[in-house]
Amino acid sequence: MLTVRAPATSANLGSGFDVFGAALERPADVVRVEKADRTTIEVTGVGSQYIPEDPEKNTVGAVVEALDAPAHVRIDKGVRPASGLGSSAASAAAAAVALNDLYDRGYTREELVPIAAEGEAVVSGDAHDDNVAPAIVGGFTVATDDGVRSVDADIPLVACLPDIVVSTRDARQVVPESASVAQLVETVGNAATLTVGMSRDDPDLVGAGMYESVVTPARAKLIDGYAAVREAALEAGATGVTISGAGPSVIAACHEGDRRGIGVAMLEAFESVGVEACVYTTRVGDGATVY
Ligand code: HSE
């Protein structure tokens, strides 16, 4: 029997649409696996009532298949589904790392990323590596068709999760089909700034590099109160604010001592438009951990 904790993650970070990701110190999913002749899946925890236990429909089922590793799998959800915090990726990542160890398959962490992404595709309809990469490898990750590059980073973050549901499928439908060269140049500059900031543990550069003017404004319309929450977080000292993944969570980069105040400001801003929310004061953290 083996237990693995895999963290929530924040994909995109604004300027790195479908490429950037960061592992969050918390929340996390915990997955326990035990060898079996036939795979069974049991789900408990936050939002578990919305998650199918049928291996054909669960994110972990495809991972079991890919690794040819039948098991009794227990998933304890700490990451709410459809939150923009990489919920399905956390389960898929934890299962991939756990089953790889349990069955001695010998894959490296990087090699497990596309395997876990297949699992995520079962629920999101599309295989994206930008959540599973940080959930497995940890730190700040750049996931492209060529593979995953990562750097450890120590950046304080606040993630605010409103009590609304935005599915990745819906959020992808509003992504504009084209962008201007000026927007492309701006985005490349911001993405590079953010990457330098992660490498230097510099929350000012990370925050400045989060700005993005193509995908984020289109998706912001799906999140009641987004503009007010962003404004409130910036006023409370956030160095940058954007949508986490496909939303509805909103993520802010900041300096250590400002996290609490920013969290309260974001909660109050959501409350002012009648939306309940919860907040995670967190930071860029480690990838999946085997116990
Ligand atoms: N990059 C994805 C999106 C996140 O924003 O749609 C989900 O993998």
Could you explain the architecture of this structure?
- The protein has 291 residues and is an alpha+beta fold.
- It has two domains: 2-151 and 286-290, 2-Layer Sandwich (Ribosomal Protein S5, domain 2), CATH 3.30.230; 156-283, GHMP kinase, C-terminal domain (Alpha-Beta Plaits, 2-Layer Sandwich).
- Helix content is 38%, strand content 25%.
- It has ten helices and eleven strands.
- The strands form two sheets. Strands 1, 2, 3, 4, 5, 6 and 11 form a seven-stranded mixed beta sheet that branches. It has a four-stranded antiparallel beta sheet with strand order 8-9-7-10.
- The model has no long low-confidence stretch (mean pLDDT 96).
- The structure holds L-homoserine.
- L-homoserine is lined by residues 11-12, 18, 128, 130-131, 168, 171-172, 245-246.
Uncertain regions: pLDDT < 50 for 5+ in a row? Answer: none
Bound molecules: L-homoserine
CATH topology label of the largest domain = Ribosomal Protein S5, domain 2
- How much helix is in the residues? 25-40%
- For the secondary structure, the number of strands is 11
CATH class of the largest domain: Alpha Beta
> Which architecture name of the largest domain does CATH use?
2-Layer Sandwich
Indicate the structural class. alpha+beta
Order of helices and strands: EEEHEHHHEEEHHHHHEEHEE
Distance, first to last CA: 10 Å
What integer value in Å does the Rg equal?
18 Å
- Average of per-residue pLDDT values: 96
Quickly count the domains: 2
- Our estimate of the beta-strand percent is 25-35%
Total helical elements: 10
Shape: globular
Largest sheet: 7 strands, mixed
